[in-house]
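Q: What would this chain look like folded?
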Amino acid sequence: MTGLMGLLDMGAAAFGAHTAGVSIVGNNIANVATEGYSRQSVILNADTLIGGVRADGVLRAESHLLSGRERDAAGSLGYSQSTSSALLDLDGQLALGDRNVVDALATFFGDLVDLSSAPLDPSLRQQVVLGARGLTDAFRSAAVATEDAISRSDDRAATMVGQATELASQIAAANRSLAGKYDPTIADQRDLAAQRLSQLIGGTARIDPDGNMRFVVDGGVVVVDGPRAATLEATPDPALGGLMRIDVVDGTHREDVTTRLDGGHIAGELAFRDGAAVQTLQRLDTLAFDFATALNTAHQSSAAPDGTTGLDLFDVPATADGAAGLLAVNATIENDPSLLATGAVGGGPGDTNGLLAMLDLREQPLAGAGQRTFVNEAIGMMASVGSQAQQATGAYSLETARADVLASMRDPLAGVSLEEEMVRLSQLQRSAEAASTFISTIDEMLARLIATL
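A: My prediction, written as structure tokens:
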């Protein structure tokens, strides 16, 4: 009798394994499109006590090596995406008509050429002043566009710092939960949070022997250590002109990682903010300062038609710092274009030597540390931004392709295939039929035994 009852327990265990298997297959199918979900399967083991098979939990399809490569790719992808987007935006802003310094320079020198044909013509003199005003507006607009790009990049980085802190907290919470009882769904969530955190701040994550995930950024700064998570803070820094400094804060310990993040969106934003954008603004300021200084020198050495010595044509600061945004036409000349110094001192009203002296500056290598003309330097400045944008876009395309390749490697390993799940359901159905037949046979044997007794 005991033997037959044990056989019934064996059949019940088989049905339990079938039920667990069907539940897991249903869960796989329900999550076929869930981001970060890893295929699950039931763990079946032989029951050494009563015999047969029993369900001993859930197995999650995973590869720590592949997950690490995916996180590394996510950091590179985030970095290239942010730099590409920021550079393309700045490139577009600098090329706009009302901010195009190249066209404004060409227009100004063209107006000087027109005036040289009739130096006393009031309308042509007015046109030169308007061209000078248009040029200062172009410099100012380009400077504002670049400063705005820096500010927007800084704001985006600060916003993502809060997101990174939340993701670090999620990883630490998952570590605490998994330490109590392994749950493949929570393990999926932890991996997904780690990948998203890598996309924001780069860094590396590993699973320690105790099952906890540890996340660090470049230089060994710990962001997550088991159940503990540091916070990331963005703080205005006077040393950065009021822009944000990024700190990792763990209790009373604070570490500046602004220049140490090795990947991710935040590092990309900071690289643009402190690199390409600042360099563009400095180059723009230097061009404005060099141009205005050279024009003022030529204009001061010439004379207006009434014989008065030339004034400064442009108001320009004492140094190149901020020159593009502060450059302005001398208000005295703007209000009275007859004061344009178009002739040589003592040359008479119709003399054009002053104009020729200013026009001569057009072809001289007075910009770019004495290597380029003003127009060529403006072209070079814009081309540099465009070239960097193109390179960053190319890098983004490559990193996108790399991420796609890794995703294609993950699909057969941990992804859900509806066809395979249907096959598993069919196998489970046959096992259920076998268990049912087995139990029916034992039940029939018990019935005959009882009837005999």
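DSSP finds eleven helices and 13 strands in the chain.
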